[in-house]
Write a structure and sequence with these properties.
Radius of gyration: 18 Å
Shape: globular
Helix content: 25-40%
Distance between the termini: 35 Å
Order of helices and strands: EEHEEEEEEHHHHHH
Largest sheet: 5 strands, mixed, barrel
CATH superfamily of the largest domain: LON domain-like
Protein name: Lon N-terminal domain-containing protein
Strand order of the largest sheet: 1-3-6-7-8
Structural class: alpha+beta
Pfam families: LON_substr_bdg (PF02190)
Number of strands: 8
Number of domains: 2
C-alpha cells in the first residue's frame, strides 16, 4: 500500500461530499466523476505533488443547508481512466483521516477546506491488528446480514482475508446510511470499528434504526 510522509500532507485540500461513500486509511475507493466541478477538481489535483482528495460525509444543517462532518479521510489518486464521453473512473488510496478547521471560500467550482492531520498519525503506519477478533462469530452474523439484504460474496476469501482489510472493506461496502458510515470512520481503532460494525449489523437484523444506536 502506498505510504506518504506526514510532512508531505498539505494544509488545504479539495473536499468531495458524497453521502455514503466511505474511505478509510490503507483502503481503496473507486469513484466515477462526471459533474463538471469534480472533473475540474480532478484535473487540478493531478497537478499537485500530493494528489489528495478529501472524502467527507455531508449532512443537513438546522436550516436544511448542506454541511460537512468535521472528520473525513483523504485519498491519493493512484489510478484513473477516461471514458469516451469525458467522464473519469478514478481510484483513491486512503492515506489519513483529517479534521476540517474551516472551509476555504473563493472562486473554485468545488469545495476546499483547511484541515488538521493531528491525532490521526496512526493512519499512516502499518496495518492495525485486532487481537479480540472472533472471525467465526463475526462471519456467522455477517452471513445472516448478507442473506437478509440479498447480498453475495466469496465466503472463502473472507475467511482468509487480513483482519484490517476485512473490517475496513465491509465498513465501506455494506449498505449503511451516511451517519453510520461516519461512526465507522471516526472509530479510534480497528477493534472499535469492528465493534461498531458488528453493532450496526446486529441492529439491522433486529429491524432497528441507526438513530437509536448513535444517539
Amino acid at each position: 500500500m502506498l505510504m506518504m510522509n506526514p510532512a508531505d500532507l498539505p494544509d488545504t485540500i479539495p473536499v468531495f461530499p458524497l453521502p455514503g461513500a466511505l474511505l478509510l486509511p490503507r483502503a481503496r475507493l473507486p469513484l466515477h466523476l462526471f459533474e463538471p466541478r469534480y472533473l475540474q477538481m480532478f484535473e487540478d489535483v493531478l497537478k499537485t505533488p500530493h494528489r489528495l482528495i478529501g472524502m467527507v460525509q455531508p449532512h443537513k444543517g438546522p436550516k436544511g443547508e448542506e454541511q460537512l462532518h468535521a472528520i473525513g479521510c483523504a485519498g491519493r489518486i493512484t489510478q484513473f481512466s477516461e471514458t469516451e464521453d469525458g467522464r473519469y473512473m478514478i481510484t483513491l488510496a486512503g492515506i489519513s483521516r483529517f479534521r476540517i478547521t474551516q472551509e476555504v471560500t473563493g472562486f473554485s467550482p468545488y469545495r476546499k477546506a483547511e484541515v488538521s492531520w493531528a491525532g490521526f498519525e496512526r493512519d499512516m503506519g502499518a496495518s492495525e491488528k485486532d487481537e479480540k477478533f472472533d472471525r467465526d462469530a463475526f462471519l456467522a452474523v455477517l452471513k445472516r446480514f448478507f442473506d437478509a439484504h440479498d447480498l453475495q460474496t466469496d465466503w472463502e476469501s473472507l475467511k482468509d482475508a487480513e483482519t484490517e482489510l476485512l473490517i475496513n472493506s465491509l465498513s465501506m461496502l455494506c449498505p449503511f446510511d451516511p451517519e453510520e458510515k461516519q461512526a465507522l470512520l471516526e472509530a479510534p481503532s480497528l477493534g472499535t470499528r469492528r465493534e461498531t460494525l458488528t453493532t450496526l449489523i446486529e441492529f439491522s437484523l433486529r429491524g432497528g434504526s441507526s438513530e437509536e444506536i448513535l444517539q
